[in-house]
Amino acid sequence: MLPLTSYSQKLYFKKTNIIDKELGIIINDFTQDKNGFLWLATNEGLIQSDGEELLRSHFSDSSLTEAIRCLYYKNDLLYLGSETGYLSIFSIKNNTSTKRIKISPSPINSLCIDDNNIIWVATEDNGIYTLDSDEINLIDINFDLADNTVNDLLYDQKRRAIWAATDRGISLCTITNKKLKIKNFGSNDGLLDNLITKIEQDNEGSIWLGSYSGKLFLIDSLDQIQNIDLAPWRTDKIIDLKLNNNSIWIACEENGIGEVNTSDLKLGSYDQNELISGIKGIQFVNENHLLINSSENEFLIADKNIQIYTQENGLEINKLSLVYTDKNGLLYFANDQGIYQKEKDNKFQLLVDLKKEGIEYVISLLIDSKGVIWFGTFDQGLYSYKDGNLKQYLENEGLINNNIMTLHEWDKAIWCGTLGGLCRIDQNEDEIVFTNYSKEQGLDAAYIYQLYSSEKLLYIATDGEGLIQFDKKQFKTIHTQLYESVYDITGLGDDHLFLSVENGRIIELENGVKKKVFSIINKDRPIDISGICQLNASKLIFVWEKGIGILNINNGRYQLFGSSSGLNDFSYDFLNILSNDKEGNTWIGTQKYLVKLESSILDIPLAPLSLIRAVELFSTPLDTQFHHFNFDENHFTFQLSSIWYQDPKIVQHQYRLIGLNEEWQTTKDKTIVFPKLESGDYKFEFRSGFNESITDAKIVSYSFRISKVFYSTWWFFTLSIILFLIGIYGLIKYRDRKTIQSKKLEYERVLSQFELLKSQINPHFLFNSLNTAYALIAKNEEEARNYLLSLSNYLRAILTKNQEHVISLTKELKFAKNYTLLQKKRFGDNLIFEINIEDERVLESYIPPLTLQILLENAIKHNIISKTNPLITKIFIEGDFLHIENNLQLKKGSGEGTKIGLSNIKSRYKILFDKEIIITSNDQSFVVKLPIIYKYVESFTD
Known about the structure:
about 45% strand; five-stranded mixed beta sheet; mainly beta
């Protein structure tokens, strides 16, 4: 058993809008493709999401609408394992299913593919199946497989073998020259729990196993099993294992998330909360965010790069006034209790007991080249500490001022920046010599915030006098009209500096000359920036009043991390709270906690991933490799997505169509339509970002050309002369061409008419729904808020369905049921909805989408609904018609209404099916009879 060094910290988890649990969709598995989209295996089939909305929630192929238990992604293909034992292969690029084959009589639990493109299929009760081309072979207990219940599979490229996790241990399967060899590992080999639930492989090739009882095992390169002791973390059933950088992340069903460093076996368990119980799976998505699927069938997300420490080994970490890292990578911090050193084993050592010594505020610290610890205080002077000896230096001993804002080692001396000037300290054996600099020595500044040095120069950040440099002989002010006060300095070299100054700006100076000015804005106002430090040659970290920020100095893009990233109650009182260690991690101290920014934050893009998801011509998807269109191919729709899972609500979107309008248009809509474009060259551009940085965001584009109408080109006139000379033959050809043109124009007219009819549906529904919300507000504000939230989710779903011309009656009835459930939030049991349709052939018939919803809306709008007069709506079959009948109890003054809904239904049945609907009413009831459409041929395609 290998014991682990443990440490605890916090990740901030929050709910996302990836999927609404009220939709009743159960998520069994999920993965991310190379473009950043999520693909969900659910009880209703395959679903695609960009983190903000569902993009493909239905497919015509039945293999993609059946319940899917697991999926596997490779080379733009999704391999889907169903609850009924079918294997399907879906092409993301072509948006089609390429294969569906019955593999097993029991559900499929896991899939993987080896280097020979053999598909391995793990099943619930029937062992493992392999699919090589179209040849299916079974591997079960008769071939010495450990057990026929196989929970997970992993392809080991180094061993060129398959690991299979079963209920009775683990099996290593190797096929050489079509001969199968199986090696089993069980309790006799060191497995303390044979029921293995998950497998993962680290960068060194070692295999990690998670078990049903919460145990973690490691199989090394020699096939030796080691039991990893996860104490003191209280684990339970391990649901998932994921490798991220050099860590194995462990998801337990009820007790949350843990992390094991694969090199030193350090365990990090994260403070849990009620949000992350019932974990079903984890995944690392773009921006290095940890995505969790919970048993509530909703997603939680956390930025794993931001870790919060509130206590270590019983030590409360709060009220921090100082954070410092030395050249050896050791972390120091100070609070009102003492100065602490964090060792590499994550234990803390108290260096100076400030409470005991009567020292209140330590605000600066330095460990010099001799190993002496120097720390400055607020109003209590300077201290040195080594080998248990603590010594204080005050103004009456030669120190220029008792408020030590910063400490720095340069020119073989210790330099103190104070609120009274600059002080140099030379150590001559046991003697301390103070040399003070103020106005008498040429330093035109009293308040010094920070010091920074190159080989030859000392840079001094001051309050009121800007930046001053000292060359060991004289002081020189670096004049600029951009700032008066400089709060912090960092740099890339001797003369390449970055300054944090007032009004939310970071100034880049090169050889004392302004190079760039970065203005950091949040919610249309500059923020207050204090500390800054260098991450690498392209990125800076800075601290602002409500959190932390990252700035890309190459393109000016920045991202702010605040309360939405878990940095709640972020506050600090002093400047020296920001420091980098030698591993590239950044530490920030606040009044409430210590923050660690992982070095992997460098890999995070500082802008959303902008994608033109699809381009459509007259509602038909295009191959985006095609860029040249005829004059009458002029109706374009662009489907857009911005991938930013952490907080998609803060993303701004802009687009423009160069050739039509050069100005950027800001929108929340992800579907942009350009109808009836004239001939010419066009370039559609799309970008997304945050705050003002959107102007520097990466642009994605699609260029295309619409040809001129043929009869306005030079070749047409030449051809006309030739045709005229040829005679009657040319005249016939010309008339044929005109006839074709006329038919295409008629097609455009009919399509435009149909699109107009569809567009009437959504405002009609929205108008009635808002009336419902208005009435509910007067009755119960809390219920009204819940109603509006449900309405928003419902609208997102029906807008997707409304893009289709027709759907099955089954799907339409499902939407009608969801709509009545929405209305029952207001009317309760006073609204009754009865369906009496059992004929499977009728259920598969066709109907325009949202037809039943419109009829239900009209019934609710025009009739009294109360406990004594409930509204009863019945749907049943009589002859060749679908009857929708409601009892008639008209409201006073309801009148005839606008009849937009009924008119819309009439028009759509006429255009789509050339059928008439029948409307009848009497004193007791109102009935609409819809013709049952058993066959439908799409006529709105080229």
